[in-house]
Hints:
The structure holds 2 protein chains of 2 kinds. By secondary structure, chain A is of the alpha+beta class. Chain A has helices at 15-22, 26-29, 60-72, 115-136, 157-163, 214-221, 236-248, 254-260, 265-269, 274-283, 331-337; strands spanning 4-13, 33-43, 52-58, 76-81, 98-105, 139-146, 148-154, 173-181, 198-200, 203-209, 293-298, 304-308, 317-320, 324-328, 353-357, 363-367. In chain A, the strands form 3 sheets. Chain A has a 6-stranded antiparallel β-sheet, covered by helices on one side. Chain A starts with a strand and ends with a strand. By secondary structure, chain B is of the alpha/beta class. Chain B starts with 15 loop residues before the first strand and ends with a strand. The longest helix of chain B is centred in the C-terminal third of the chain and has 23 residues, at 488-510. Chain B has helices at 30-34, 84-88, 104-107, 202-217, 234-237, 256-262, 296-302, 321-335, 352-361, 384-389, 395-408, 428-437, 447-453, 480-483, 488-510, 531-537; strands at residues 16-20, 40-51, 60-71, 94-98, 115-118, 131-133, 155-158, 168-171, 174-177, 184-187, 190-192, 224-226, 245-249, 272-276, 288-289, 309-310, 342-347, 370-373, 379-383, 416-419, 442-445, 526-528, 540-541. The chains are: A alpha+beta, B alpha/beta. The structure holds iron/sulfur cluster (2 copies). Residues 16, 18, 34-35, 37, 39-40, 79-85, 96, 472 of chain B line the site of one iron/sulfur cluster.
Amino acid sequence: MCRIGSIKSKVPVHPSKALHLMLPQQEGHDNSGFAMVMQDLYGIFSTYKDKPLLSMACTQKGNQMVEEYMDSHNFVQLAEWIPVPNKEPGLDIQAMPYYVFRNYDFPEHYNELSQKEKEDVLLNTRLALRKLLEDAGEGYVYSFWPDVLTLKEIGDPRDIATYFHLWEDNGCLSAKNIVVQCRQNTNYDIVRYAAHPFFLQGYTLCANGENTFYTKNKEFQKSLHRGYIGFESDSQCFLYTLHYVLHELKWPINYYKHVITPLPFEEIEKREDKDVLTAIRQSLAHLEINGPNTIIATLPDHRMITCCDSKKLRPVVIGQDENTVAIASEVCGLNEIMPDRDMTKDIYPNEREVIVIDNELEVQRWKQ
Amino acid sequence: MEAVKTQDISVNDLAWKIEYHADRCTMCGSCVASCSFKAIKVETQAQSIVVSTDSQPKPEHRHVARPIIKQVASLTDFCRGCGMCEKVCPNNAIHPVRNPDSRKTLLSKDAGPIKRGGRTNLNAQRTLDSIIVGRISQMTDPSLDAARHTFDIRSPFGRVLSAKELPFQMKDGKMVMATKTPPVNWIYPLIFSDMSIGALSTRAWEAVALACAYLNEKCGLPVRMSSGEGGMPVKLMESDYLKYFILQIASGHFGWNRIVKAIPHMVTDPAGVLIKIGQGAKPGDGGLLPAAKVAEHVQAIRGVPKATLSSPPNHQGLYSIEESVQKMHLSLNAAFGFRVPVAIKCAASATSVSVYNNLLRDPYKICGGFFIDGIQGGTGAANEVSLDHTGHPVVSKIRDCYLAAVKQGLQGQIPLYGGGGIGMTGNAAADAFKMMCLGANGVFVGKVLIQLLGCVGNEQGRCNSCNTGKCPMGICTQDPRLVKRLDIDKGAQKIVDYVLAFDAELKKLMAPIGNSSIPVGRSDALVSTDKAIADKLGIQYVC
Lengths: 368, 543
Ligand code: SF4
Ligand code: SF4
């Protein structure tokens, strides 16, 4: 089982805060890995917020291959952060030789491209790089998107944090949104790509639970979009559906829940909008998820959402203080990072709710 | 001895032999009266017996002439093994026994090819029995509680559009439908298959229809029933119950005259229209209703004289599948104002995937369901050679069609229904569940229903006499004396009870795999103990 968490803040927060959110929940997440996606970056990346940032872990050869590819496709490197790791003995981490975080400028002739076309170029580039490194077995590309940083590694999250100096806040790394998870995928193979959060074109998602409709989700999603690949974990399906509903179909966010956990037919029948809900249920029957799960996601406009399965088999809790909203599988995580918050205001969403937190930290509860 | 010719028929040439115990027989005559096939008769037999009637043994040898029950040695009035005689005998004095030395199939061709009803007697292999629901929720995720959780057991019947084709418009932050979409009814994934009035007796049809209505009105299960070819009583068509029926149109177009005339008087729409292209039990053949069964009421419903009614193997005037979609689908859709889904039923065939692909790609988006009928389906009348030697198993065909849709990202757009042998070993819920995991949206059953009404036919040649008009159970005959044997209410109750058990069993299977809605396409939930089957269906092999 996983534990998931996220922080959304008015002021940039450091990844150590996310670690403090997760560590009290460790009995549930087995400390087998660490993965986080940061959105709306500050610190060393603040100058390049509109430039795509590549996050990857690779070998020296892999790095060379990526540089050659980017050169030949006229991407101009702007800035780079290659963390100098703390290699003290005894750390539980299966480290890759290099972790590269690099900003690029678009090739000049891309300036006339529309927003959508640019998004497609970024996705295509990431997919091409992923394939390049995957075929050669030389590394992993996690994200390539403006203002988004992804870090994933196998090992004990505390040691991984030590390795990357994440315990010390030296001001270089911070963001207003962090989604985090402390476990490698243990249902399937241990592959770096299998650790959530996953990222696609501005959408970040992590999930706690099981998607028993994994096979049918996967079979359907494979033909929906070229970016729906990998499927190393059944949780990827949640992200792809989120992306499909919001980005491809351009439906409002509150319909996402109607796709993944549709209302029973009896309840649909009683609704005014039953024609729309029935149409959604029948056209996207293969995107329904069944089984216990909770998801946390960040949208391209940095709003954060969370919801759980239709039987509420996996819980989630949302806590808030003046500057921060945090979401966690267990309340002990919230107590660790915001002990002084008003606990009576904690929200335990029910099985038919979607919680949306906007950038002013206003928390909305949508009833399905 | 000279009088005996080797070509003479003896009871030992027949498929069933009657075992008769003259010593137990009290000559009540019930068996002879009940045998609708006239396969037994009363005869006087000369017997030489020794009796002693005094208080002291005083044996006395007598020659007596006694009545006995004797099997008829005939290729027309032969015993079918139905067991009616055994059922009525108060003294256990008579019953049929299967004869392994039968030469019947060989000898009875002098009246042309053998015709019979029932099902295949050769291809009764059970693919579904080597498949197990093997993905059980154990620690990774909790199983559900079959008794306490709510389950959403519904299947689409109608043409489903892809999400991108949905005519949604934004209005005040909400999506609304800008135009109409093709009609889709969400029904129970078990359809009562098309058995016509004519093939069935009025009582049998009524019992099935009654069960269907009861399940809808009292049990909340939206089970639908297909009328079968030949139409329905006008009263029923003009009643509110029509909404539970799927009207069938087959190649003979029997009954449509009356259906069309009834349309202006219909108070509700039917659940759907099913175009029958072919039937799993006898692919390539049209429907066949022997004259013996074309009773007065059948003539009335179908608008025909008393004669053998053979539907042609094809819908006349349809050359190609494109045409079928344009002509038949469009006109039937139009007949009901595009409010009623129109589906198509074909015999499973090596070509099923091509047919399904064509339907999926049709630009009118007008086909509301693809029903595939396998070789183990039943029929009221067919050539034995068709029943036993033509057809195609349905399990892999459903899977192939589903995967063909998956390949194109079109799964779910034309619902798949599989039938032909569902529930053959008694448990239709397990069969249905496995079919759904392999890609079917639902299943249709026919034989199971008549078996619940009392049919004793089986795949080993028992009875299978549905073509004769002499059904011993009153199910598929129009002979009023035989029809009276069937109790409509009891029959309907049997079907209702079976479907309620089906529903409970379906939940019992959904719960352990952790699903509250039906697991269409969840092939990961299945494993097979047969490597060849596992490979063919793309499921895990286990041993
Ligand atoms: S088993 Fe049926 S067909 Fe045979 S003799 Fe008895 S009643 Fe007649
Ligand atoms: S009992 Fe009637 S329905 Fe059943 S096989 Fe015999 S004739 Fe056919």
